[in-house]
Specification:
The structure is a single chain. The protein has 287 residues and is α/β, with parallel strands linked by helices. Helices cover 41% and strands 19% of the residues. It contains 11 helices and 9 strands. It has a 7-stranded mixed sheet with strand order 5-4-3-6-7-9-8, sandwiched between helices. Strands 1-2 form a two-stranded antiparallel ribbon. Helix 1 packs across helix 2, helix 2 packs antiparallel against helix 4 and helix 6 packs parallel to helix 7. The longest helix is centred in the first third of the chain and has 16 residues.
Length: 287
């Protein structure tokens, strides 16, 4: 059925055949296959299209087949590949960390647009760093800044270190339960904490529930618990004229405007993501 010489097209056809019983939508099936192939070959999609007759070496063919079998078992394609795209870089990911999402790129973009590279270096704390996607991206984009990524999970910090070593070696990583190991004040605090309510578990994608870490997904008090804990300590760690940026659940905007709005001497701004959902909050300290 397939070429004796395993060209890119042949392994693509094999992957399509293998995944058809598991992913019924052809467009989604081929999207996952092409994501695997571009990631393995370090190509863009145009390069993939122009090299369909290229013979795939055995090591990469076997790696592709193992990844396809993992996807058949329900594993997200990013875990099967071993890395995920974020802000133009490929971050190492596995089941110890959350897969970084496009919405989080928008949060990072908000920070970088607010503070241009030519400005004064900033002291930054990323709470719940996970794979390090936020902290390492900011460190790579603003190499003169003092950036620290904090996480309660030692396993997650190991993944974050592998990404920092690759893209921004100067980023510091600390084991910390929210602010517990933080020191001094920061010009920028940023966090994408667990914010999903346990009540939402039944409507979530099965692959997320099965493979992504609960510690990075769920929070008590309808998903608001960690925001409330951070709000209680925020002004101890946020410098005068500093700003804190939070990714939030799409239904949490009004509640979190109220939570952070109770802090003295701050202004709070809510921003939507590209899909038009409430997704980010900025808390600016005015004094």
């Amino acid at each position: 059925m397939f070429d004796e010489q395993w060209t890119i097209q042949a392994v693509r056809d094999w992957g399509d055949w293998q995944l058809e019983p598991y992913i019924h939508d052809e467009e989604e099936r081929l999207a996952q296959i092409d994501y695997l192939l571009t990631g393995m070959m370090d190509w863009n999609y145009a390069q993939l299209a122009n090299n369909l007759n290229t013979v795939l070496e055995d090591e990469k063919r076997l790696r592709f087949m193992v990844a396809v079998r993992a996807i058949k078992g329900g594993q997200p394609v990013q875990y099967a590949l071993g890395h995920a795209a974020f802000y133009g870089r490929e971050f190492n990911v596995d089941r110890r960390v959350l897969i970084p999402r496009q919405e989080t790129e928008e949060l990072v973009e908000w920070v970088l647009n607010d503070y241009k590279a030519s400005g004064e270096p900033k002291r930054v704390l990323d709470i719940g760093t996970g794979s390090g996607a936020i902290a390492v991206t900011i460190g790579a984009e603003r190499p003169t800044w003092d950036v620290t990524g904090a996480d309660i999970s030692v396993d997650a910090l190991e993944v974050a270190k592998s990404n920092a070593d690759q893209f921004a070696k100067q980023v510091q990583l600390i084991e910390s339960d929210l602010f517990s190991a933080a020191s001094g004040q920061y010009d920028i605090i940023i966090s994408n904490p667990p914010y999903i309510s346990e009540q939402e578990r039944d409507v979530m994608d099965e692959s997320v529930i099965m493979y992504e870490p609960d510690l990075a997904l769920f929070a008590d008090d309808e998903g608001l618990a960690l925001y409330k804990k951070m709000a209680a300590e925020l002004l101890n760690y946020l410098s005068p004229q500093g700003a804190a940026y939070f990714e939030i659940g799409y239904q949490q905007g009004p509640a979190l405007l109220a939570v952070f709005g109770e802090l003295p001497g701050v202004s709070v701004a809510l921003r939507q993501d590209m899909s038009g959902h409430d997704r980010m909050i900025k808390v600016s300290r005015e004094a």
